[in-house]
């Protein structure tokens, strides 16, 4: 799949000199989930690490009910908090080597910050179904195990917006869908 | 001019004038210098104030920019803005307003939509949200804006709210506003002592000056040249305009007086007060100096004029008394002794000495010359009788002497002896001081006796015309009678010599003889203060060139006269306190008038 075109804020004035390997990732997901997709055998776990004053990964996609661990792998104190409507929480500040976790039960986008380091931020996208994928460094993605049918696929990027596109999946087959920003 | 006629006045006025001129010039220069210095000081002060205001403004702008950056970097605010939920942002923002002394905080989201505001009305918020600086901030640039408000000028710093280090994400914008208001102007006034006014586009928004001055300030703001002098209700001011916009906005071609400006106004009243004080002191000093100079010049003038007054006083004394032995004595050894006055005094003393010496020499000469003339007269007068006596003696020695001849000779000798005796008496009378014997006497009686005595012998008749009211006077009747007899006889002899073919030298040969028959009139008159005797004849009068000399001793026109009759008469009359005068009209007669005080 072609990488999602990164948003270009040079239109707004500031030239983009960011290296390509750290381009923001996008998340692709089905807007309408197939029947039975919501059955979760067991709540999963995910990790959002804090390292070098950065949340890693920058974009995390999970299903509802997943508990996310926020280990502090740095050498300094960190804090994790969010004011998002989806999940409003503040884990407080904690030292290096410790970890705290929180369970996300509502779908939506949660942006987390560190109140000590103002530049730190990360996105957690919470889905009700497992049919989503985060792009790799080249902007490629793969959503597996999708039952045959016709779906609308949506793309999310923190800086750009995309049109949803429709795709039909046949049994045992695959479909390719490329997105470009609006 | 009359006042310049006196040396003292000239010295005094010149010194005083010099003092006034020099002091006046000095004061003029000092005044000029002080005025200029105060003006320069005022300019320095207003420039310093301008620098302080500008420094304050830029410091404040920096502070608020830093403040805006700090707030914008707060994770709480970022997280709140990221929600794009106004109540959440408002809640966060309220906390900051309490901590920072800004007048306004305003947050928009990444598309410029207003999220939260504190310290401003929704209407102002809408205006701010529509400012270009919001778009600038969304584009990642900090920007400034100035917004006129009813109570002052709002300076806005707008910064982007970003998150992330390597690829920052612009979440929204934060505007921090602070007012250039009356409170700030008062604060600046407290620091600088100058009045401040903030205005924009020719409108005054806030000032430390009272409201009645706003009109004048507004007109000043609208002028192209906003610096210079300004007269307000509260006094005279010097103004300095400071543009407040970070970069003067000239692109849109707005005219003069536009754009935000801070006017620094420095009151001249203090300067004028200091100037007035200095001028008053200068004036007092000048008056005192002029007075002192005047007094000094007066004193200096007096060091000359006081000895001069002493000298002239002594001169007047000498002139009045004729006493040449009086000397001018100036007090010596005084501090303000004037050498010139001393020279004048010494010279005058030398002069009087010389005059006295000359006088002595003159009187000596006079005496010698009188003696010489007397010798001539006596020689002449004595020789004639001696010749006659010698002739008579010759007759007497003749053998054939007739009795008639004998009698004639004796008579001749007798007569000439009388004449000689008379000459000797005259000379003695004139030469010796007269001893008067004063007693009350009747002037009319004296006149009558004199006329009778003088009528003896041939000649014109003597008439008398006496005023019966003439009172008795104190006089020496004998001396006066002799003088009168002399004068009457003079008059008779004069007319007699004319009638006998005029032997008088210098008498006119022709011309009308006196009116009628020759005669002499002796009359007396009295007035309120004086009594007078007049001896008038109607002869030919006295020649004009002879008249001035008639009282000179030994001057005579008569053969056989000693020339002492009139001098003796004057001697007597003046010795008795009277005056004698001769008036003559050639061809008509002569009048001798004698007057005595009653």
Walk me through what this model shows:
The complex is a heterodimer of chains A (182) and B (598). By secondary structure, chain A is mainly β. Chain A contains no helices and 14 strands. In chain A, the strands form five sheets. Chain A has a four-stranded antiparallel beta sheet, with no helix packed on it. A three-stranded mixed beta sheet of chain A has the order 2-6-9, with no helix packed on it. Chain A has a three-stranded mixed beta sheet with strand order 5-11-10, with no helix packed on it. In chain A, strand 3 and strand 4 form a beta hairpin. The relative contact order of chain A is 0.27. Chain B has 598 residues and is α+β, with helices and mostly antiparallel strands. Chain B has helices spanning 7-72, 75-83, 86-99, 122-129, 132-138, 182-192, 214-221, 269-321, 339-397, 403-431, 443-454, 477-499, 565-575; strands at 104-109, 114-118, 143-149, 152-163, 169-181, 195-200, 203-207, 228-232, 235-243, 260-267, 439-442, 462-465, 472-475, 520-526, 530-537, 579-585, 589-597. In chain B, the strands form four sheets. Chain B has a five-stranded antiparallel beta sheet, with helices on both faces. In chain B, strands 7-6-10-9-8 form a five-stranded antiparallel beta sheet, sandwiched between helices. Chain B has a five-stranded mixed beta sheet with strand order 12-14-15-17-16. In chain B, helix 2 (75-83) runs antiparallel to helix 3 (86-99), helix 9 (339-397) runs antiparallel to helix 10 and helix 12 packs antiparallel against helix 13 (565-575). The two termini of chain B are 48 Å apart. The chains are: A mainly beta (182), B alpha+beta (598).
Largest sheet data of chain B: 5 strands, antiparallel
Secondary structure category of chain A: mainly beta
The structure class of chain B reads alpha+beta
User: Could you tell me the radius of gyration of chain B in angstroms?
Assistant: 63 Å
Radius of gyration from the alpha-carbon trace of chain A, in angstroms: 17 Å
Number of helices of chain B: 13
Poorly predicted segments of chain A: 1-22
The ordered H/E elements of chain A are EEEEEEEEEEEEEE
By DSSP, the count of extended strands of chain B is: 17
What's the overall geometry of chain B? Answer: rod-shaped
User: How many extended strands of chain A?
Assistant: 14
Terminal residue distance of chain A: 17 Å
Low-confidence stretches of chain B: 247-256, 501-514
In what range is the share of β-strand residues of chain B? Answer: 15-25%
Secondary-structure element pattern of chain B, one letter each:
HHHEEHHEEEHEEHEEEHHHEHEEHEEHEE
**Number of contiguous helices of chain A:** 0
What is the helix content of chain A? under 10%
Q: If you average the pLDDT of chain A, what whole number results?
A: 83
Question: Termini separation of chain B (Å)?
Answer: 48 Å
């Amino acid at each position: 799949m072609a990488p999602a075109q990164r948003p270009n804020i040079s239109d707004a004035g500031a030239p983009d000199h960011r290296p390509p390997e750290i381009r923001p990732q996008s998340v692709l997901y089905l807007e309408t989930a197939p029947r039975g997709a919501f059955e979760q055998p067991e709540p999963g776990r995910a990790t959002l690490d804090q390292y070098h004053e950065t949340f890693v990964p920058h974009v995390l996609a999970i299903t509802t009910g997943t508990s996310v661990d926020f280990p502090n792998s740095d050498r300094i104190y960190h804090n994790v908090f969010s004011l998002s409507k989806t999940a409003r929480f503040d884990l407080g500040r904690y030292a290096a080597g410790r970890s705290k976790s929180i369970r996300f039960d509502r779908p939506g986008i949660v942006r987390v910050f560190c109140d000590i380091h103002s530049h730190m931020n990360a996105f957690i996208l919470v889905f009700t179904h497992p049919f989503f994928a985060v792009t790799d460094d080249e902007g490629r993605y793969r959503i597996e195990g999708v039952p045959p049918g016709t779906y609308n696929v949506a793309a999310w990027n923190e800086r750009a917006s995309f049109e949803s596109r429709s795709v039909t999946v046949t049994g045992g087959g695959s479909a390719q869908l490329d997105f470009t920003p609006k | 001019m009359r006042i310049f006629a006196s040396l003292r006045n000239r010295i005094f006025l010149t010194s005083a004038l010099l003092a006034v001129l020099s002091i006046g010039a000095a004061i003029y220069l000092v005044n000029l210098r002080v005025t200029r210095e105060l003006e320069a000081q005022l300019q320095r002060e207003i420039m310093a104030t301008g620098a302080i205001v500008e420094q304050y403004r830029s410091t404040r702008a920096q502070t608020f920019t830093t403040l805006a950056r700090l707030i914008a970097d707060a994770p709480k605010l970022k997280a709140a803005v990221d929600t794009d939920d106004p109540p959440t942002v408002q809640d966060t923002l309220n906390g900051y307003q309490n901590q920072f002394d800004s007048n306004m905080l305003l947050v928009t989201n990444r598309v410029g939509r207003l999220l939260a505001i504190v310290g401003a009305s929704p209407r102002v918020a809408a205006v701010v949200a529509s400012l270009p600086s919001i778009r600038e901030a969304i584009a990642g640039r900090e920007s400034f804006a100035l917004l006129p408000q009813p109570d002052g000028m709002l300076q806005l710093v707008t910064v982007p709210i970003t998150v992330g280090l390597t690829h920052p994400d612009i979440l929204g914008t934060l505007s921090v506003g602070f007012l250039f208001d009356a409170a700030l102007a008062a604060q600046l006034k407290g620091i600088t002592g100058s009045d401040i006014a903030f205005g924009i586009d020719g409108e005054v928004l806030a000032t430390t000056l009272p409201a009645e001055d706003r009109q004048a300030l507004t007109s000043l703001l609208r002028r192209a040249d906003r610096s210079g002098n300004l007269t307000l209700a509260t006094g005279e001011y010097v103004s300095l305009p400071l543009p407040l916009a970070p970069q003067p906005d000239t692109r849109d071609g707005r005219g003069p007086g536009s754009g935000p400006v801070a006017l620094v106004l420095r009151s001249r009243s203090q300067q004028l007060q200091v100037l007035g004080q200095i001028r008053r002191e200068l004036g007092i000093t000048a008056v005192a100096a002029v007075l002192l100079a005047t007094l000094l010049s007066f004193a200096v003038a007096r060091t000359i004029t006081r000895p001069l007054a002493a000298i002239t006083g002594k001169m007047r004394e000498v002139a009045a008394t004729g006493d040449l032995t009086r000397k001018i004595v100036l007090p010596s050894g005084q501090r303000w002794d004037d050498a010139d006055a001393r020279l004048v005094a010494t010279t005058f003393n030398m002069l009087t000495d010389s005059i006295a010496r000359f006088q002595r020499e003159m009187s000596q000469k006079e005496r010698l010359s009188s003696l010489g003339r007397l010798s001539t007269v006596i020689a002449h007068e004595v020789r004639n009788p001696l010749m006659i006596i010698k002739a008579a003696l010759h007759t007497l020695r003749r053998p054939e002497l007739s009795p008639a001849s004998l009698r004639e000779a004796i008579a001749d000798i007798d007569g000439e002896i009388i004449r000689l005796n008379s000459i000797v008496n005259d000379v003695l009378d004139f030469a010796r001081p007269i001893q008067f014997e004063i007693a009350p006497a009747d002037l009319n009686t004296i006149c009558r006796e004199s006329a009778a005595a003088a009528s003896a012998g041939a000649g014109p008749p003597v008439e008398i015309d006496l005023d019966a009211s003439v009172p008795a006077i104190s006089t020496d009747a004998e001396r006066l009678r002799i003088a009168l007899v002399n004068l009457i006889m003079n008059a008779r002899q004069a007319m007699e010599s004319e009638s006998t073919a005029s032997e008088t030298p210098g008498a006119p040969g022709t011309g009308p003889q006196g009116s009628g028959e020759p005669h002499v009139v002796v009359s007396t008159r009295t007035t309120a203060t004086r009594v007078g005797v007049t001896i008038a004849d109607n002869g030919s009068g006295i020649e004009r060139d002879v008249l001035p000399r008639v009282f000179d001793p030994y001057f005579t026109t008569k053969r056989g006269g000693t020339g002492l009759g009139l001098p003796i008469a004057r001697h007597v009359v003046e010795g008795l306190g009277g005056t004698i005068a001769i008036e003559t009209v050639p061809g008509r007669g002569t009048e001798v008038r004698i007057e005595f005080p009653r």
